[in-house]
């Protein structure tokens, strides 16, 4: 198998500081947050507007990469399930997908939300949602 590298394009700045205190999904009471982009990718913002729906792809840096099965939503009574059938942050390649709305653009900072990613989460890409 070929190995490859991901390079962060930015970082999430959120009031959520601990994984244990974050909602499971953005739609479950997550706050808005700032996505601070690296200046080196600022030209990639051309065409992005307030109100756009985007998918923020993150590297879930606190996720465990050795976990292959979990009890969904961390409820022991739920049947053991393979991580590919869940949204668990613990998985072989801990990528997070966060559908959010662009609330504001301030230079290379995007106010986005709602997003359940914790403060300091690396962002590896942004994609516009197509209808």
Structural descriptors:
131 residues; mainly beta; two-stranded antiparallel ribbon; 8 strands; 0% helix
Kindly, what is the distance between the CA atoms of the first and last residues, rounded to a whole number of angstroms?
Answer: 34 Å
Portion in helices:
under 10%
- The residue-averaged pLDDT reads 92
Element string (H = helix, E = strand): EEEEEEEE
Low-confidence sequence ranges: none
Assign the structural class, choosing from mainly alpha, mainly beta, alpha/beta, alpha+beta, or little secondary structure: mainly beta
- What is the number of helices? 0
Give Rg in angstroms: 15 Å
Largest sheet: 6 strands, antiparallel, barrel
Fraction in beta strands: 25-35%
How many runs of DSSP E, i.e. beta strands? Answer: 8
Strand order, biggest sheet?
1-2-7-6-3-8
Principal-axis shape: globular
Write the layout of secondary structure elements.
Blueprint: E1 10-13, E2 33-37, E3 53-59, E4 69-70, E5 81-82, E6 95-106, E7 109-113, E8 122-128
Antiparallel strand pairs: 1-2, 1-8, 2-7, 3-6, 3-8, 4-5, 6-7
